[in-house]
Design goal:
With about 140 residues, the chain is α+β, with helices and mostly antiparallel strands. About 35% of the residues lie in helices and about 10% in strands. It has a two-stranded antiparallel ribbon. A hairpin with a 7-residue loop joins strand 1 and strand 2. Helix 2 runs antiparallel to helix 3. The two termini are about 30 Å apart.
């Protein structure tokens, strides 16, 4: 599926090609926020676009799903480096409906910065017995 749909390096046609696209859609549905009907419309339905267009869309969806799946995070709304809005999926609301209400990111973004040589393994502050590796480059 990856060689055919994402890279275009495996020439497969007909039922085998459809099976590859269906397998990729199953993978994407399992690890991304994109609904299956959107994935089907973008990747399975033939359109007027060139044969490279579905592969480009598939690569974009795959990288987005991979980034989401491994908890990579790059911004919050309304302030990119501030806490998330309450309606964002990563938002954790503490003391909701009180004067002490606090919103923070469950994915710990923005990440703690570690200088080279100061890398560490530390317990996640929100999940007991889950340890995270904090390296010089946290992305």
């Amino acid at each position: 599926a990856h060689a055919h749909c994402l890279l275009g390096s495996l020439d497969v046609g007909g039922a085998d090609g459809d099976r590859c696209w269906a397998e990729l859609i199953d993978i994407l549905e399992g690890c991304s926020r994109t609904p299956r009907d959107v994935l089907d419309a973008e990747l399975m339905k033939p359109g007027s676009a060139s044969s490279e267009a579905p592969q480009a869309r598939a690569r974009l969806r795959f990288v987005a799903a991979l980034a989401e799946w491994v908890n990579m995070h790059d911004l919050h709304k309304p302030y990119a480096l501030g806490p998330p809005a309450k309606d964002q999926r990563c938002a954790q609301v503490d003391d909701e409906h009180s004067t002490m209400e606090r919103v923070s990111c469950n994915k710990l973004f923005p990440r703690k910065l570690a200088s080279p040589g100061e890398e560490e393994v530390a317990e996640d502050p929100r999940r007991r017995d889950l340890y995270r590796l904090w390296m010089a480059r946290n992305c």
